[in-house]
């Protein structure tokens, strides 16, 4: 999980409503340099979208987001997901599983719970409402072994400040694939946004 995060800069958080959009969307993002993708399990099309991307976009590594239960994690693995992302951290999700997990944390106690279970890679969510860069800087002292992917309220205006932190490997956000561009099939515009996102790494 750490390796994927460090190579990602930005992990697009994708809520796909039409499975037919999955492959062209993934190809557009990969063409712009964003090759680690999170498809949220928030729509009926999500698992099929993961299957299609995993089978047809060799340049992309696709994971499942909004994984809330071990059953979600099982379904994501069966669909071909390479990793799972959860908005939170529960004892059940911390049980061993073949599919790597990026669990969400919002408090120091949750980070500690994850570290006790051997987890060192975390999704910091919701990042901006919980304190953004200020909180992550504070966590760098007591949790030097923890690496974070802040998600929630991240956009082109604040991503660079987060990416500059030593304990941040990447950020997650939906701004690189806005629904208006996906609905219109503006894949060239999404590629341009991906290129701009890659350039945010200082």
In a few lines, what is going on in this structure?
The chain is of the alpha/beta class and 202 residues long. The protein has helices spanning 2-6, 22-31, 46-56, 70-79, 108-116, 132-140, 159-163, 179-184, 187-198, and strands at 9-14, 36-40, 61-65, 84-85, 101-102, 104-105, 121-124, 147-150, 170-173.
Q: What share of the residues lie within helices?
A: 25-40%
CATH domain fold name? TIM Barrel
Domains counted in the coordinates: how many?
1
Largest sheet: 4 strands, parallel
How big a fraction of the residues is strand? 15-25%
SSE sequence, one letter per element: HEHEHEHEEEHEHEHEHH
Average pLDDT over all residues:
97
The value of Rg in angstroms is: 16 Å
| Poorly predicted residue ranges | none
Known CATH architecture: Alpha-Beta Barrel
Please state how the strands of the largest beta sheet are arranged side by side. Answer: 3-2-1-9
